[in-house]
Amino acid sequence: MATLQAQELVGGEISLPEATKEAAMEATQALGNEVLKSNFSYAVDKMYPRWLQRQAKRMGSEQRLRAALQQVGSQMEEAGITIDSFVAKPVYKVFHVHPKKKQGVRQIRSGDDVDYEILAIVPTEMKMSFYSQDQPKRSFLRQSFQIAISGDGGLSWTFIDGATLKKQDLRSVFPLLPQQLVLPEKVDTAL
Length: 191
Description:
Elements: H1 18-36, H2 40-45, H3 49-59, H4 62-78, E1 81-88, E2 93-101, E3 114-130, E4 138-150, E5 158-161, H5 167-173, E6 187-190
Antiparallel strand pairs: 1-3, 2-3, 3-4, 4-5, 4-6
Helix pairs in contact: 3-4
């Protein structure tokens, strides 16, 4: 019997039941609601574990990463920046990523021997305001996205923030994503 070849483990775009897409959107909204409250530790707690390890390594440790994110709220306040609203939009695209051999399977012979994580791209809109000395309040709408990942069929989700994410960084974590992957455009619009 032939085994499944690595090139056959392609994490292509998939369709999901609407309830699973809704769960990704609701989890993203819950993340945004915590950020609105300046609860940035929640964002770290909900960060995709492999991405968290990468970011922690860049910062020197997870403790340093957490400390830096805790300061974001006070730095924003000092700079006169507020997050006024956060809205998660319907899921843009969904992919199978990060295949793992199913428990009890000795050799991968078909796609049925593999479990995948679900990766959902969830567009977001965040309204931010800032104050400049001797200037009226100014606001802008930031259109961005969150990468929502679930390893349990959509029951729980972890995230990678898309605000500064580059396609090559995402593909370095999930190499089975398509080469021609198109991420949502990130746009700031003055209001």
